[in-house]
Amino acid sequence: MTRTMDAGNETDGAILDAIDRFLRVEVRPHVKRLEQADEYPTAIVEGMKAMGLFGCIIPVEYGGLGLSTATYAAVVARIASVWMSLSGIINSHLIMAAAVLRSGTAEQKRELLPRFASGELRGGIGLTEPDAGTDLQAIRTRAVRDGDYYVVNGNKTWITNSGQGGCIALLVKTDHAAEPRHKGMSLFIAEKGPGFIVSRKLKKLGYRGIDTCELRFDDYRVPASRLVGGVEGRGLQQVLSGLELGRINVAARGLGVATAALTDAVAYAQQRKTFGKPICEHQAIQLKLGEMGTRVEAAKLLVQSAARAYDRGERCDMEAGMAKYFATEAAMENALECMRIHGAYGYSPEFDVERYFRDAPLLLIGEGTNEMQRIIIARQLVQRNPV
Ligand SMILES: Cc1cc2nc3c(=O)[nH]c(=O)nc-3n(C[C@H](O)[C@H](O)[C@H](O)COP(=O)(O)OP(=O)(O)OC[C@H]3O[C@@H](n4cnc5c(N)ncnc54)[C@H](O)[C@@H]3O)c2cc1C
């Protein structure tokens, strides 16, 4: 029914059509079973590899599809409208790839990007620790130089793709005493090996099927050549400079979930009858549908506008924050309204709506909580409009 977003040109349009087909044939029929069993979608991931989705935004010269951010956002919104977990499998992988693309040395780009693009080497981002999420400068995982290696010790938690993936972009402290604290932080592309321990897969309310794990680093040795950019002390900056793209992609996931909830609600409201007529003819339901549809259109425009600003190379932290905040709240609100419209059936795993309701809250937390988004937006409003 409602399309999430369209492509900017014909080639990208063909890619989006192929993705729609893939989602309809290879994904949708399997979502319920995989989600309910919390099973990693191995066969679907193979299909995603074959379609080049692990290289969406990696330039063609490194074996990627080289899509614009606007088209990438359209891809993410489509995938999330069918199964939000699948978008996470490529999203945090591409945040890691984007860090290498933006800040890596020429050798790191040559060596890693083609492996990322093909999906042969998949991964995510390892920032959060048991005692440090929003306040990343409080991380404790440390890396100490030892010849051509760094020796890493510490713990990470909530790291998506770290069970099935082969590597992560790992944020550590290389100098605990540095002031300001961020000058002692560095980023590594850490491939699995001795001392890189996946301690457990975490159970989650939603976002199932995809692996989110706790990690322990026990004298894990990472080659010094994997220090992103080859210089210590830039890790936090390298992570933060990826936030605009990260927020656009979470916003696109929000748009996908909000759209799915709207589509299901509009269909169900025409099928379900009470007091002799379809519930879509009751004004209380019409008010809900009207609000849900408006949220989807507004979210779409905010995502498109932030993605296009990013493609033009403009600073768009405020725009990406607005898109992330609005589109993800839209996902949560539309999931709840869709559930109310479904009555008791909305509470049943027979329908997809209970999944939207469990998936949407993650979007309010990831890539900077929505509390932080509003603070960032407010600071930008003041900074850009001094009196
Ligand atoms: C399913 C899932 C997958 C995840 N995947 C990853 C991943 O792949 N990689 C990764 O590194 N992390 C991942 N995370 C972790 C996620 O990024 C963090 O949960 C998030 O950054 C928030 O950190 P926290 O949970 O420690 O909350 P806290 O930082 O402890 O925040 C708690 C509350 O306080 C508020 N708050 C904090 N500081 C301020 C402030 N200064 N002003 C106002 N309010 C504030 C927050 O908004 C929040 O409401 C994942 C989390 C989940 C749930």
Instruction: Please report the distance between the alpha carbons of the first and last residues.
Output: 46 Å
CATH superfamily of the largest domain: Butyryl-CoA Dehydrogenase, subunit A, domain 3
The poorly predicted ranges are: none
- Sheet-strand content, in percent, reads 5-15%
Bound molecules: flavin-adenine dinucleotide
Measured as a percent range, the helix fraction is: 40-55%
What is the SS-derived class? alpha+beta
Given this structure, which CATH class of the largest domain is correct? Mainly Alpha
Number of strands: 9
CATH-scheme architecture of the largest domain: Up-down Bundle
Summarize the structure.
52% of the residues lie in helices and 15% in strands.
Describe the SSE topology:
Elements (H helix, E strand, L loop, with lengths): L9 H28 L4 H9 L18 H14 L1 H20 L2 H13 L4 E4 L15 E5 L2 E12 L6 E7 L11 E7 L4 E6 L10 E12 L11 H6 L2 H29 L1 E2 L2 E2 L4 H29 L5 H25 L11 H13 L4 H15 L3
Parallel strand pairs: 1-4
Antiparallel strand pairs: 2-3, 3-7, 4-5, 6-7, 8-9
Bound molecules: flavin-adenine dinucleotide (FAD).
Describe this entry's structure for a reader:
- The protein is α+β, with helices and mostly antiparallel strands and 387 residues long.
- It has three domains: 10-118, Butyryl-Coa Dehydrogenase, subunit A, domain 1 (Orthogonal Bundle), CATH 1.10.540; 124-234, Beta Barrel (Butyryl-CoA Dehydrogenase, subunit A, domain 2), CATH 2.40.110; 239-384, Butyryl-CoA Dehydrogenase, subunit A, domain 3 (Up-down Bundle).
- The chain is built from eleven helices and nine strands.
- The strands form three sheets. Strands 2-3-7-6 form a four-stranded antiparallel beta sheet, with helices on one face. A three-stranded mixed beta sheet has the order 1-4-5.
- Strand 8 (273-274) and strand 9 form a beta hairpin.
- It is globular and about 80 Å long.
- The chain starts with 9 loop residues before the first helix and ends with a helix.
- The mean pLDDT is 96.
- The chain binds flavin-adenine dinucleotide.
- Flavin-adenine dinucleotide is lined by residues 92, 124-128, 133-134, 158-160, 204, 207, 212, 362, 365-366, 369, 371-372, 375.
